[in-house]
Amino acid sequence: MTQLHNDDIFNQVKALNLPIGKYAVIGSGVMSAYNIRTHRDIDLVVTQDLYEELKNQGWQTKQIKPDFEVVFFGVAEASPKMVTLDNYQPNIESLINKADIINDVAFTKLTDVIDFKRALGREKDINDILLIEDFLKKYPDPHTYFRAG
User: Fold this and answer.
1) How is the beta sheet containing 68-73 ordered, strand by strand?
2) Can you say how many angstroms the Cα of residue 75 is from the centroid of all Cα atoms in its chain?
3) Could you tell me the sign of the dihedral formed by the alpha carbons of 60, 31, 142, 115, in that order?
4) What angle (nearest 5°) sits at the alpha carbon of residue 58, between those of residues 52 and 59?
5) CB neighbours of residue 73 within 10 Å
6) Which of 119, 46, 128, 40 is CA-nearest to residue 84?
7) Options 3.30.450, 3.30.1330, 3.30.460, 3.30.70; which CATH number does 6-142 get?
8) Is residue 119 exposed (0-12), middle (13-18) or buried (19+ Cβ within 10 Å)?
9) So where are the chain's domains?
10) For 101-121, what is each residue's pLDDT tens digit?
11) Residues 79 and 71 sit within 8 Å (Cβ to Cβ)
């Protein structure tokens, strides 16, 4: 799968025409926005009503686990909940409401990405956590990254 660059994440999410306050990018898409690493796909948490709307607009349904379904369109996947992890059950509405709006795109906070990746605990997630922590040492307030460039 092709790796995508920083500008792509903004353009790709904007092309989906999703309403602010109804979604947030999670995972590697957030990392890509800050040029921490590239992304391959766009994972989104969405409100239940937006999820139903996306299904009605023709986004395809995919069963990831018995208790976890997403809709997808191109490289974007959306769900009104997170994959079930015993040690991580965030409030999706809260993740969306406190999302950082960067260049008119909603991204979950890097600290929330760390929490999610820590709960997943895979080797690639541990590596991502280290990358994010290094970034946050340079930019304790991540918003300054966009003003510094």
Assistant:
1) 60-65, 68-73, 76-79, 42-46, 23-26, 105-107, 100-102
2) 12
3) positive
4) 70
5) 15
6) 119
7) 3.30.460
8) middle
9) 6-142
10) 999 999 999 999 999 999 888
11) yes
DSSP letters of the chain? ---B-HHHHHHHHHHTTPPTTSEEEETHHHHHHTTSS-BSSEEEEE-HHHHHHHHHTTPEEEEEETTEEEEEETTEEEESSPPPBTTB---HHHHHHT-EEETTEEE--HHHHHHHHHHH--HHHHHHHHHHHHHHHH-SSTHHHHHH-
- For the chain, the farthest-separated pair of C-alpha atoms sits apart, in whole angstroms, at 45
* Residues written for the chain: 149
The position carrying tokens 């600290």 is: 111
Average the pLDDT over each of 10-19, 62-71, 118-127 and give the range with the smallest value.
62-71
Q: Are 44 and 51 in contact (CB under 8 A)?
A: no
pTM recorded for the entire structure = 0.90
Contact 99, 142 (CB under 8 A): no
Looking at residue 1, its pLDDT comes to: 45
**101, 58, 56, 54: which is closest to 78 by C-alpha?**
54
